[in-house]
Amino acid sequence: MKKRPDYDVIIIGAGASGGIIGRELSDAGLSVCVLERGPMFETKDVSMDELRFPIRQDLMWATPKVGGMTWRPHSRTATQKVFPRITQGLDGWGPGGSMTHWGGVSWRFEPSVFKALDVWGQIPGGAIANWPISYEDLEPYYTKFEYRIGVSGDDKMKFGPPRSAPYPLPPFEQGFATNHFAQACRSLGYEPFPMPAGILSRDYQGRKRTGSCGFCQSFECTVEAKSNTRVTELREALKNPNFTLLVDRYVIRMTMNRRDRIEGVVCLDSAGNEHEITASIVILAANTFYNVWLLLLSGNPYAPSGIGNQHAQVGKYFHQHPRFGINGLFDELMNVHIGPSEPVMAISDFTEDHFDHMGLGFIMGGYIYGAKVTGNAGQPIEFAKTVELPDGVPRFGPLYKDFMARTYSHYYQVHAMLTDPPMLTSFIDLDPHAKNHYGLPLPRLTFDWSPQLNNMQQFFYPKMVEILQAGGAKKIWGGQHVQPPWEMTHPSGGTRMGENPKESVTDRYGKVHGIRNLFISGNSLFPTMSAFNVTETIGALAYWQADYIKQEVLKGELV
Q1: How confident is residue 555, by pLDDT bands cut at 50, 70 and 90?
Q2: Which of 181, 235, 416, 508 gets the highest tally of CB atoms within 10 A of its CB?
Q3: Is the backbone peptide bond immediately before 78 cis, with ω within 30 degrees of 0?
Q4: Are 131 and 76 a contacting pair, CB within 8 Å?
Q5: Is the separation of the CB atoms in 139 and 111 below 8 Å?
Q6: What is the dihedral of CA 238, 243, 246, 249, to 10 degrees?
Q7: Pair 415, 527: CB distance under 8 Å
Q8: Which pLDDT tens digit goes with each residue over 150-190?
Q9: How far is residue 295's CA from residue 306's CA, in Å, rounded to a whole number?
């Protein structure tokens, strides 16, 4: 007699996509087990502690025991850098994943992004591709994300894509610094607007509105005003008797019982003991690096080069956001560290295809926003650790102390988030030498910025300086370069979705080509990036995938 699987569905990862799909499928009556490598924690376990959270990265970031990555600029060199954690604190840990410490920025991608190859064409060495789905396909699911999670925004913002409903919550009341930035932008003819954010501007569905404390990015919210799947989807899913959340479960491989089917997973508990769990459907819903890592690490006689890698597509087409910020010092008291640290004011005049690119030497674009803190939440310790110093100011002594005392309350940054196209030379694989605590190879990133990025940065830099000058900045410094290529901002790609199995890893629903019951979720599916932050699109995709899985289950195709 054939043994019944332990669950209908196993989901690997309890972050943005895993939390959403877990609730959707358990609400539909399926038995669901979500495996999360991090520990269980509750809101009472977090605090506004700079040293504990953004500095020491305690509780909400993967530990060096199970985290980490390596980097090299191109495939002709050996590994050049080894990191005990994925850089920039983007590695989720515990229920909610990296949404527990995100800044809350909740953009929709614009329609042109989904047909990027049609809009831009291909560049030399590029890997630009159309998405196999459209904005119209995802629009209902963007709306569902905004209402389920709780997003505050202005639905009349410039170049905002078509919407079927307004935001559920109004935008934030802006503070002095953000209004100052907005007025400087208006004086130059721009139309600034509040960035949409998964932070409550009003009480919503039993949660309280933000207290504007400033401890958003890199902190979990102490009053649950910042939205994430831990306090919304997972909390509701846990009310279902058919939903199981297992924490401290580090999945190290998926198992197969035939060429076209996943049998289950093998995971380690906190003591290092192995457990094998089976299911009719397996959904890989971790971050970009972990999704690729687990597929490659799960090579077996049915899939010798890694699961889903029969056409050598797993790990390909990595891309991420370049970003940089310019500092301005003002006579006025700005106190930019007070209030939500990410959802500030923005201008979108230079995003996607909304401006003339003739002669600029780059495609795509970026958005400019402010008034932004330096670092993550910009609180005093982190400010001292991360602020870029002007020429002539040392890292110690009276000049340094005077600069810190004068600048902290009188500065803000103007920031830009740019778009760099995926390139054929960028990929993730397994490092042949560097290993983690369990002796497993670390994911290795082979990546450098595309040749177009220098032209893009030179286009945006003077516009950002001009805004600071229009605001009356007495001193302007920094911003000559984007972040190094090994510092991560929304790492994406690696399991690209598409219609052609020879050029992608999954179909339009995230189902791995050639495997009947394995799905991948998250921004590792993205064929091409938008100028905008990724979380809301991750969430919309998860709702889209969950609907498809439910339909296939009803037809008897999966369970």
Answers
A1: confident
A2: 181
A3: no
A4: no
A5: no
A6: -130
A7: no
A8: 999 998 888 999 999 999 999 988 899 999 999 999 999 99
A9: 6
The contacts of residue 527 (CB under 8 Å, 6+ apart) are 116, 129, 130, 131, 132, 317, 422, 493, 496, 497, 498, 504
pLDDT value, residue 2 = 61
- Residue 559 CA to residue 555 CA, distance in Å, equals 9
Cα–Cα dist 67/72, whole Å: 18
Is 70 exceeded by the pLDDT of residue 58?
yes
- pTM for the model stands at 0.97
User: In 3D, which of 217, 522, 481, 525 has the Cα closest to residue 344?
Assistant: 217
CA dihedral 305, 308, 313, 315 (to 10 degrees): -80
CB 445, CB 70: distance < 8 Å: yes
Euclidean distance between CA atoms 427 and 492, whole angstroms: 10
Share of the chain above pLDDT 90, in %: 87
* Helix/strand number for the chain, H first, E second: 10, 17
Share of the chain above pLDDT 70, in %: 99
Q: Show the DSSP H helices in 189-300 as ranges.
A: 233-237, 288-297
- pLDDT bracket for residue 558 (50, 70, 90): confident
Residue of 248, 310, 278 lying closest to 41 (CA atoms): 248
